[in-house]
Amino acid sequence: MIAPKPKRKWRPSLGQIVFGVLALVGTLPLVGLFFFRIYDNQLIRQTQAELIAQSRVLAAVFAEEVAARLASGIPLGFEIPLEARPDAADEVTPIRPLLDLLANDLFVRRPDAREAIHPADPAYVAIGARLLPIIKETQKVTLAGFRVLDPQGVVIAGRDEMGKSLAHIDEVASALQGRYSAALRIRIPDKAPPPIYSISRGVGVHVFSAMPVIVNDHVAGVIYTSRTPRNIFEHLYQERGKFIAAGSTIVLTTLLVGLIVSRTITRPMRELVDRAGRIGRNDPAGFRPLAHYGTRDFAELAEHFFAMAEQLAQRSNYIRSFSAHLTHELKSPLTSIKGAAELLLDSLASGSATLTRAEQETFLTNILADADRLTALAQRLRELARAETMSTIDPGGVAEAVAMLRQRFPATTIEASGPVDRKTSLSSETVLIVLTHLVDNAVRHGARRVRFDAVDRDGQLVVIAGNDGDPISPDNRDRIFDAFFTTRRDSGGTGMGLAIVRAILASHGGEILLLSPETGVAFELRLPLAGDRGTSI
Length: 537
Known about the structure:
By secondary structure, the chain is α+β, with helices and mostly antiparallel strands. It has helices at residues 14-31, 36-68, 122-142, 170-176, 232-238, 240-280, 296-350, 357-389, 398-408, 428-444, 497-507; strands at residues 106-107, 114-115, 145-149, 155-158, 164-165, 181-186, 205-215, 218-227, 413-417, 449-457, 460-467, 511-514, 521-528. It has a six-stranded mixed beta sheet with strand order 1-6-7-8-3-4, sandwiched between helices. A five-stranded mixed beta sheet has the order 9-10-11-13-12, with helices on one face. β3 and β4 form a beta hairpin.
């Protein structure tokens, strides 16, 4: 079966994905710079709220001064329409800061004051004089600009523009109609700000607030205040310790995450890919263990990968060795058959009896013997192929196989002891094939008695298969499981029996070992019990 190849297209590597994620995490603080304008807007509204509170206090003082002079005939300004007056039942009438820098509520620079058409009433000038000390003391703390206007918009108290009119300014005009108004206006600083200040729009603006003074539902004046919003960079500088700590934490966390991901995922993955490439090129260095396995899951993956690669490598070596032995084993009988057939053909072609009848019979007998050997080899090869791919149909046990062996080998005493009735993960047919090869091999080497002693050990049925046949010489002990190795070739031995047994057990997660008894021959079979099947090749 041909393994499907993935469609060829660009795919990011694991390292690129990890780098991208870490880069995204690392740039989050930079992305936060784009939210400076939102923060600027909050600072502007905070400034407006402060101006509303300060001007409202001055407006209350101003209203008290005007109310005290009503009897003397102090003139009032615009009368507020009935529908625009606040409900007398309302206990609170808050004014909310609504300036929005993000909505581009930004006006040009505040127009200059104009000469007043009519001078301020002396009564209002006197009120301005009384309020001026309060304004100066307040200005020292709040840093805000204060101007107190009469009902006509003429400045009656403030540091500058005394006696001039501000009634033409939009927010002042609205306040003279009894409506609170505020505006953002462009501010030209005394000196050029640093280039980094361009990130913040709040640096070059000025907040203006016009609070009407209401007395007897008439406008008695306006408290006109202004202030530059708090600079976001000044705030950042004041909180620099916290921001540096936060930034350092983000950088260190990003580096730590990168280090952890690199050590636990990226590096082991690269090493495993390198090992796979080396194994594909038949480089023995590919089977070296990884320097780092990272996680438990990756260690299990690497373990199973190397186990699979080792099995495939062993299978490849086994196939090469098996092919070489098979070629050698087939070459001898085929050469013998070809030689005998050529001699018989020459004898027939010569027209004279160059070969005697006895010689002809000898050659024909040799041909039949070699053909029988090829047939036996073919049968053993089929059994070996079945052993490589055999699956469990029904769990089999040693007891039922021993009963059938006694029928096949009546001249041999076959005994069994222990829990031989336990079911294994091998089918009944497979168990019979394994034990048949062992008994047949024992009989061919002069055994008259075969014994199977079973014991249950660690989820396996361990069977000691012993016989009283010819012992195995020390020189042959390391070769008896090799395919085609036999010391009974003349009597029909193919050298495939023990190789088939080992292949069957290996394919079912079992094993066969050669023991060293004092007399005879003994093998240890390890058969997985049913329900605890080992890994198949």
